[in-house]
Design goal:
The chain has 215 residues and is an all-alpha fold. The chain is 68% helix and 0% strand. Helix 9 packs parallel to helix 11. It starts with a helix and ends with a helix.
Length: 215
């Protein structure tokens, strides 16, 4: 081969091909034939071979894809089943559902009593939806009181004067708004009225408004 070809070919192949020029020729007969017939073309082929090896050597091995992380469980935003049942039974417009659910979420301690009271009120109402909207306003202003449990003093008065269930329940609801001391004071006033009444339950119903306003 021409000396110039040999030197350039060795320079091109020496860094990337084992054995330099002789190794390249031995492993590539086509290159050897081309070199004898056309040294310039052989040099171009040698350069391309060396560059290909360099490029391949510089290609980074990609890392295996990491498996996707499992999605974190999200808290359920579905309304409480008791609320859904109330809306279904009384055919309440679903547009009130979100507002009512948000209100009841803040009343966890009184949830059961509130729901029982609402069932009673809506069953008696001509417009259950209108009643519910009214009671939601009371919840927002802090004046709504759910189903209450009569205290010992009220139970004793109820037993003594044989109050019927509605009178006892309504009296309990009204008295629940007051602190224990004022409640005891008001019950003494109620008892005085009942001692002279021939219809204790009716008398209690008449006193409810005054009791609610603080006598």
């Amino acid at each position: 081969f021409p000396a110039a070809f040999r030197r350039q070919a060795e320079a091109a192949a020496g860094g990337g091909m084992p054995g330099g020029l002789p190794g390249v020729m031995a492993t590539n007969p086509l290159l050897a034939m081309t070199a004898s017939a056309n040294p310039m073309m052989a040099m171009a082929m040698m350069g391309a071979t060396a560059n290909a090896g360099g490029i391949a050597g510089n290609i980074a091995v990609s890392k295996p894809a990491q498996p996707p992380k499992p999605a974190e469980p999200q808290e359920s935003t579905a309304p409480d089943p008791d609320i859904v049942e109330l809306f279904d039974y009384f055919h309440i417009d679903p547009r009130h559902l979100s507002r009512f659910s948000n209100l009841m979420e803040k009343r966890e301690e009184t949830f059961a009593g509130d729901m029982l009271k609402l069932w009673e009120l809506l069953e008696q109402a001509r417009s259950p939806e209108g009643m519910l909207v009214s009671k939601m306003r009371e919840m927002e202003t802090g004046t709504f009181i759910g189903k209450t449990v009569p205290d010992e003093v009220l139970l004793a008065v109820s037993k003594k004067f044989r109050l019927d269930a509605p009178a006892e329940a309504k009296l309990s609801d009204v008295m629940a708004k007051y602190d224990p001391e004022r409640r005891k004071e008001y019950m003494k006033e109620v008892e005085k009225h009942l001692e002279t009444s021939a219809k204790p339950s009716a008398t209690v119903m008449m006193l409810l408004k005054k009791l609610g306003e603080g006598l």
